[in-house]
Amino acid sequence: MELLVVGDVHGCVHTFSKLLDEHWDSGKQILVQLGDLLDRGQFSPETLLYAIELQQKYPDRACFLKGNHEFEAIVHVEEGNDNWLRQCGEETLKQFEKKSLELASYMSWMKSLPLFYETDHVFISHAGISQSADHPFEESHPESVLWTRGRLKHIGKLQIIGHTPCQSGRAEFDFESNTWNIDTWAYRPNGLSAVKINDEGQVTEIIFVPTLAIDVSG
Question: Which residues form a coiled coil (predicted)?
Fold first, then answer.
């Protein structure tokens, strides 16, 4: 089945919804979102709730992966995470409080998110398989699929990643590792990117939806 892979949303729920309304055929495509639903944009709670709603409505057609921002939020709730609070967590918590919601209520859902989605032809994760990672699925490791920003390994199939924003502001392809990076600074604001992939693992369309002003201005 064809895949629609969507990059880092970062609280830009209206832009995310617009992209799906215009480009996702839930009867023919599996949605895979790369993680980092939370933080930076103005609508982290709404983005999280929208993702949960989609997964409940389309349990076999909507897959949300864990990103480092979900991981950091989990660590904060369970152990305390001052680094996340300083970077963007305080604003995210204020957004939840404004909606009379508790971030802690969604821990079980966030903890259950998979680290990757894989077919015979494509491997999809938040940050990719690093050339130097001995334990790519150890969530706290700096070279894991949640965190790495270094050179990626050619794994014999196409990789799709986000995490490290593309400096061009558009999706970028790395020939050495056979990887598409589709993090295009949705919250900057710039835009939200996605790719469609056919059953043979070929990218058939690159999608770019400019960030809607409401998502970054409130």
Answer: none
CATH value at residue 93: 3.60.21.10
DSSP at 180? E
Residue 113 has a pLDDT of 99
User: Would the pTM count as exceeding 0.85?
Assistant: yes
What CA–CA distances, in Å, run from 131 to 62, 128, 149, 150, 177? 29, 9, 11, 8, 9
Q: Three-state SS for 165?
A: coil
* Alpha carbons 37 and 70: distance in angstroms, whole number: 7
- Supply 200's token pair: 């043979």
Domain that holds residue 153: 2-217
Q: Which amino acid is at 130?
A: S
Give the count of domains, the chain: 1
Computed over every residue of the chain, the mean pLDDT equals 97
